[in-house]
């Protein structure tokens, strides 16, 4: 689960991280009062959407030379003008795709005199099975570009969960970020704070880009992106309350109601699979044969007929789907349950696109019989390779 920048900063501030004063705004008539609560005279008006690249983004409704989704303002009046121009319009960034996202809330923040911009994040390094800091002196830009062009400027430092961030760890991070004087002292305080927030709140990602050294020599968290492990949200009702469903795909929201692992993608072949590994393999082989998956959907090992029906409805609700591949290997999951769910769903919502079904494993013959006797126009497949070829051919032929 993702949250907005202003929510992330409020959370980090509660742990003791240095952040600027700021006020979220949900309506244009709130802007003046919000700005007057801040010290000034420099303000920053930030679009709050779940996507990066806001500063370089463009609003669909505005002219091409209009400012982006993050704007400096030198007066309260300028804050109000920017708010009126940004709020309610659609911001397109490199991460939103061409459709963009409507800006429904802004964050008006006190400005900062920046000396240097740094990069810092914490994530789970699965190669060592530990949380790890990723830091670089090249802040304010895409860390992917830094990794590709100047990888020597990035330090990845895994943290021992039993000790947390030690003095030696802090020293390595400070050295990598070239922190001196008060900034170094601030770093030695900040790194354990961020690690504590990451672990205690079950975050999957904490990214500060940029972490700045101000002209007065102090550190400040200038931007914050936080994602949480959805499997741990039951432990954090306070975090659940921060969820903004307007930023999420409607199909993903519906899937979460049925405990389905679903992620919307940009392709045209809908996938329903049991098991994350098999789902990834299914998407890979679809791409291998020249098409693109429309989703990742794992119905899990213990899905019921009702759950499978819901999954099928979610897939067919996507107007981009031109074909569907059901790929089930029945271990815990029974093939007859999948078959019953598919038949039930098709009878309820209809079938307007090609459907390829590959079943293997527990009760496979029962499952095939249910499909064969359903009267559905289904293309049967013997294995994954055969299934992928058939669905791609069916879609391209259509």
Automatic annotation (TrEMBL):
Keyword flag rRNA processing: no
GO cellular component: cytosol; succinate-CoA ligase complex
Keywords: ATP-binding, Ligase, Magnesium, Metal-binding, Nucleotide-binding, Tricarboxylic acid cycle
Assembly description: Heterotetramer of two alpha and two beta subunits.
A molecular-function term among this protein's GO annotations: succinate-CoA ligase (ADP-forming) activity
Organism of this sequence: Flavimaribacter sediminis
Function: Succinyl-CoA synthetase functions in the citric acid cycle (TCA), coupling the hydrolysis of succinyl-CoA to the synthesis of either ATP or GTP and thus represents the only step of substrate-level phosphorylation in the TCA. The beta subunit provides nucleotide specificity of the enzyme and binds the substrate succinate, while the binding sites for coenzyme A and phosphate are found in the alpha subunit.
Pathway: Carbohydrate metabolism; tricarboxylic acid cycle; succinate from succinyl-CoA (ligase route): step 1/1; One-carbon metabolism; formaldehyde assimilation via serine pathway
Chain residues that bind Mg(2+): 209, 223
Residues reported in the UniProt entry to bind ATP: 46, 53-55, 109, 112, 117
Enzyme class, spelled out: ligase
Protein name: Succinate--CoA ligase [ADP-forming] subunit beta
Cofactor binding summary note: Binds 1 Mg(2+) ion per subunit.
Co-factor requirement: Mg(2+)
KW Metal-binding (keyword) present: yes
Domain ATP-grasp: 9-55
Record-listed E.C. numbers: 6.2.1.5
Positions contributing to substrate binding: 274, 331-333
PROSITE patterns: ATP_GRASP (PS50975), SUCCINYL_COA_LIG_3 (PS01217)
NCBIfam families linked: PRK00696.1, sucCoAbeta
Similarity comment text for this entry: Belongs to the succinate/malate CoA ligase beta subunit family.
Record-level GO BP terms: succinyl-CoA metabolic process; tricarboxylic acid cycle
């Amino acid at each position: 689960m993702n949250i907005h920048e202003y929510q992330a900063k409020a959370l980090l501030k509660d742990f003791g991280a240095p952040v600027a004063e700021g006020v979220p705004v949900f309506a244009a008539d709130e802007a003046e009062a919000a700005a007057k609560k801040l010290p000034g005279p420099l303000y920053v008006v930030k679009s709050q959407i779940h996507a990066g690249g806001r500063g370089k983004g463009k609003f669909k409704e505005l002219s091409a030379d209009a400012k982006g989704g993050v704007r400096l303002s030198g007066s309260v009046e300028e804050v109000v003008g920017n708010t009126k121009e940004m709020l309610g319009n659609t911001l397109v960034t490199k991460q939103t795709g061409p459709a963009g996202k409507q800006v429904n809330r802004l964050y008006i923040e006190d400005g900062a005199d920046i000396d240097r911009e740094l990069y810092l994040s914490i994530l789970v390094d699965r190669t060592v099975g530990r949380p790890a800091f990723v830091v670089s002196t090249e802040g304010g830009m895409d860390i992917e570009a830094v990794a590709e062009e100047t990888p020597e400027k990035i330090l990845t430092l895994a943290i021992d969960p039993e000790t947390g961030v030690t003095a030696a760890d802090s020293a390595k991070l400070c050295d990598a970020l070239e922190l001196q004087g008060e900034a170094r002292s601030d770093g030695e305080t900040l790194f354990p704070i961020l690690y504590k927030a990451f672990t205690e709140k079950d975050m999957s990602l904490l990214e500060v880009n940029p972490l700045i050294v101000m002209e007065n020599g102090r550190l400040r968290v200038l931007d914050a992106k936080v994602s949480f492990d959805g499997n741990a949200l039951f432990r954090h009702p306070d975090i659940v309350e921060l969820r903004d469903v307007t930023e999420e795909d409607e199909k993903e929201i519906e899937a979460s109601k049925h405990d389905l692992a679903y992620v919307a993608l940009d392709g045209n072949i809908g996938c329903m699979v049991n098991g994350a590994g098999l789902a990834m393999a299914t998407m890979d082989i679809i791409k291998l044969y020249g098409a693109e998956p429309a989703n990742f959907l794992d119905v899990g090992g213990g899905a019921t007929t009702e759950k499978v029906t819901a999954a099928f409805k979610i897939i067919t609700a996507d107007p981009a789907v031109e074909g569907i591949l059901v790929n089930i290997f029945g271990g815990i999951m029974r093939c007859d349950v999948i078959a019953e769910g598919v038949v039930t769903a098709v009878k309820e919502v209809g079938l307007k696109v090609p459907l390829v079904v590959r079943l293997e494993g527990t009760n496979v013959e029962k499952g095939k019989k249910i499909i064969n006797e359903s009267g559905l126009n289904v293309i049967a497949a013997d294995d994954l390779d055969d299934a992928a070829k058939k669905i791609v051919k069916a879609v391209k032929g259509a």
